[in-house]
Amino acid sequence: MWKYFNHAQNVPGAAPGIEHEEIADLPRGAGQVHIRCIDYCPEQVLVQEIHDLEAFLARHRPEWTAVRWINVDGLSDTRAIQVLATKYDLHPLAIEDMLQKTQRPKVEAYGSEGGEGSEFTARLFIVAHDIQHRDGRLQHEQMSIFLGHKTVLTFQANPTKEWDSIRQRLEAKGSRLRNNDASFLAYSLLDAIVDSFFPILEVCSERAEELESLILGNPQPDFIGQIHQFKRDLLLLRWVVWPMREVVTFLQREHECVSETTRIYLRDLYDHVVHIIDLIETDREIASDLISIYMSAISNRMNEVMKTLTLISTIFIPLTFLAGVYGMNFHYLPELGLTWAYPAFWVVCLIIAGLMTWMFRHRHWL
Fold first, then answer.
1. Is pLDDT above 50 for 6?
2. Residue 250: which residues within 8 A CB-CB, separation 6 or more?
3. What does the buried/exposed string (b/e) look like for 282-299 if buried means 16 or more CB atoms within 10 Å of the residue's CB?
4. Tens of pLDDT, residues 57-108
5. Residue 325 has pLDDT above 80, yes or no
6. Tens digit of pLDDT for each residue in 188-205?
7. By the number of CB atoms within 10 A of the CB, which of 44, 45, 299, 364 ranks highest?
8. How far apart are CA 119 and CA 355, in angstroms?
9. Does residue 115 share a domain with residue 36?
10. How many whole angstroms separate alpha carbon 68 and alpha carbon 45?
11. Among 264, 296, 328, which residue terminates a domain?
């Protein structure tokens, strides 16, 4: 599915977006699709697992429903996406962005306020990314949110646990979620995503301290690869979080799909995003310093090795000279006939080596 989609997007002159009637023609991907609908109001909530989507959408929502949240886990069922896009009048450009896995986090407004001057219903399309630790690396998952007046649609390729707490809060009578509109639900979904970044950043900070301790203790060649992987993880975090500041800023503006109460809570979300960005930039500086620390540690270690080898060579230079002189085959060499000559030779060698070692230590060369 992704190969087809990316190829079609790169064709020069191709029409932008994906029309509703074109969705079903896209190749179906692998994997199961799980669709869940939650209708709620301050007094009650109804959770439904949807197996026959067309039959479900043909029925009217309960009269008491204040907000409807339809969540789709899995993008392989193109027929289901087509039915939802037609039912809720999703914009072709938004559908195109939703089906990509690497769309930059953003928010787009489609349709005119009041329903005039546009063939599409007023709706906000929000793209965010969830970050998870998998196989020792950070991986991201695109999450698409369509916000209407009373309806929220969410799409992601794989199920996520980040929104489980939102579902639990919806089932609690008297919760703030139950007493607010659809825009507050969209804010809560974004807030859950942003809050999930804090534990990941804590792990990154611990990893930076661990790498620093290992490098200072005993630098190994494989540490440089770990440092570069750490930097790549931080770049991914920055790519995911940095645009979220623009997303939240956009949502704080006046729009018919966003209530005044939600805009107040979006200020707190903005503070969280800015805080996370500051933490990421701090970790990136630490990661850059780790490279310098590693190179300095390797250089110092090499200097120690060279110093030791140089000292050993310097100590043995005079000994080699004496051994060379003593081992020369002169016929008239007075010491050769003396019984104490050989022990005296070793005494002289040890004295010279000891004096040189003492001199090196005295000058803090050793």
1. no
2. 107
3. ebbebbeebeebbeebbe
4. 999 999 999 999 999 998 888 889 999 999 998 998 999 999 887 789 999 9
5. no
6. 999 999 999 999 999 888
7. 45
8. 96
9. yes
10. 10
11. 296
